[in-house]
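Render this sequence as a predicted structure.
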Amino acid sequence: MANCQPTLCLSLSLLLLLLCSKPVNSQQPQANISLGSSLAAGASQDYWLSPSGDFAFGFQQVTGGGRGNSFLLAIWFNRIPQRTVVWSANRNELVPDGSTIKTGSTVKLTKDGSLMLADPSGRQVWGPNGVGPGVSYGVLYDTGNFVLTDRKGVVLWGSFDQPTDTILPTQIMKKGNKRCTEVISKYSSTNYSTGRFKFMFQTDGNLVAYTTFYPQTVRNYAYWASATKSTGNSVTFNESGSVFLSSDNGTILLYVFTNQEPTQDLHQRLTIDHDGVIRLYAYPKQSSTSAGRRWPAEWTALSFTPADICGLMRADTGSGACGFNSYCQIEDAQFPNCKCPNGYKFLDPSDESRGCLKTFPPQDCSSSAGEEDGQFDLVEMVNTIFPSGDYEYYQSISEDMCRDLCLSDCLCDAVTYESASCWKKRAPLTNGYMDQENTGKTLLKIRRQNSTYSTAGERKKNDQSRKLMATAGWVLLGSSVFVNLMFIVGSCPWRKKNRRMNRVGDESDEAMESANLQRFTYREMESATGGFKQVLGSGASGTVYKGVLGERAGELVAVKVLDNMPERDGHDVREFATEVKIIGGTNHKNLVKLVGYCNEGQHLLLVYEFMSNGSLADSLFGGGEGTFPRPNWYTRTQIAYSVARGLVYLHDECSTQIIHCDIKPQNILLDQGMTARISDFGISKLMKTDQTRTTTAIRGTKGYLAPEWFRNVPVTAKVDVHSFGIVLLELVCCRKSFLLDFEKEEEMVLVDWAYDCYSRGKLYKLVEKDEDAMEDLKKVERFVKVALWCIQEDPSLRPGMKKVVHMLEGAVLVSEPPDPSSFMSAI
């Protein structure tokens, strides 16, 4: 998104501008629509015109899809054969027709000044929001804005204030305007109901395009953004056809789109289309040679963004640019095509965005599943990947092994293979896309043709062949590791006084090598960090520096240097070995990735991928130099989901359960896309799969520690749940859990204040300075209730992290939490 072309960025900004402006003072005199005027849906096609006749307001008939004679109350371009709708009132609830006002659906500007759309029974289907008393007449301007005004001509409501999927010239979107903040796409080219994409001008000054949790309009995944946080105040689509972003004092910060065509001969509109692409369109007003060039008799896209809608869809949830089990491909430079893989067909041939379904019975997972062996093949889809939906991941294996892993797993529907890495995926497959730049491939499992009739001998032969290949592969891989380990062991010095520390070093080296990590020399680390100059952070175990790996084309890294240990036999060495074993064996998108290490003499260093947005503490509490902007409400909710999923992986999905022991904002890092990654496993506690409790010395940070740390009792993974609950409250409220110098004493301890606000029904006090959160109080309440359950003093009352995720997502009902009884000595 940050690499979009200037014209593309311009068009997106233009879209925002269009959403929210009032008509300018230079409008021509309008023919007023008096109180008591009405229109009826039906064959007569009565409508109200703007003075020039360019726009009309009335009923448009919608056909197809079994809708019969249904009508949309709309505004459209009236002088072109394609009567293109630019605004609609009842996009999600069409009304039936009628030959007269008495029997049909009507829209009426009533005597008391109300604009009301009613069905044949007289039930109100739609009316404009926020219109007070005093309406004197209505006007449809030549800009396409239908307004209600008082007797002095002051606009009380306008269609520009409540846009649907289109912005028109002279519309202005202003930061903080509650009535004009977003446009939502149509579902399809012929279905005007709300679709799967929305475009917003956020209160932080950023223009962002999102997918939605369809059929809800709640935003899901940001696939485009203008990166204008804290600077943008308004977006304007002017009459010259340019779109630009302005600051508070009117200074133009950015031209989002600059029009090169004479606009007097063109109709223009900016639309977020049903495929998620934002396009600036033009149509000639007079002839095909208008505006000094030949124009086709149709809408022409002058510019569009993003350029690659297919490749930008990476959300863990939602159907993305195309539906489930389908893949997306850009074929004519701007329009995405949705396609079904071999063995699949469109769920609805008339609506390709609904996705695809299998044309064969899936693999049987019952007790007699052995009869299915040999009945499935993996079909290769070159340059095609499905970036989300993984449930298992393997490194350093061959493609044949990857194939066998999927064929022998009845839950596996496909694998993506790239650079000796293998990702298993189960249905439905999501966000697939084909592009020549994709170096990976997808191997899709489909049932063999006529496989039901294959002989038992053939199935047995195929099964034995695959098993023999898999066994041979694993034996060769195991032999290679064994030989390497023997070489390492044989080359180690065995002097008695160093035996213990060499053993620690050998174990850590073996762990890292098995995880395919790179070993660096201390001199290489000195060079990479420029002599350890730029400090990113520090803690009890050491200091973290920013570095650059030259051999990896300038890859940024974070180098953690443990304190110097001349004897190499203390707590820090054990901590180093622990972190080696833990991180070397983990792989999850919500954990910081370990790139390599240095274990040389007294120098113990770990090399991590660099997180460009620092720690959550930096953003949430205004850390250090204040270079990280505070995340908005939506981003904070996504961070909460990410941290929770990372803890689920540590607690439930690793072969050895891992208790992190120090979950806090400083140990939650944010990557370029503001995805949260859990870091710093240096004090983690490992437990075998048959263990549930362990006894250890106090570990962690005051303010986030669970009460059981102070009671000399065995701890469980519930200590991480407690810490997560504190972090969750901090995410909701954007403040630290304890503020000694807080101006209001009752708000000093966040846990107590949060429970007090919850119990008194005043949760809004926690987020009253956050406009986005104030508009989403149901989710605020759910998050606070989850946090209060997580921080219960009795560990048995706290939910496990899997349940926490389900509670946060709304999949599980969150019951009323009891008073958590804050444990003050933990602060």
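Summary. The two ends are 42 Å apart (CA to CA). Confidence is low (pLDDT under 50) at residues 1-30, 450-504, 686-698, 822-827.
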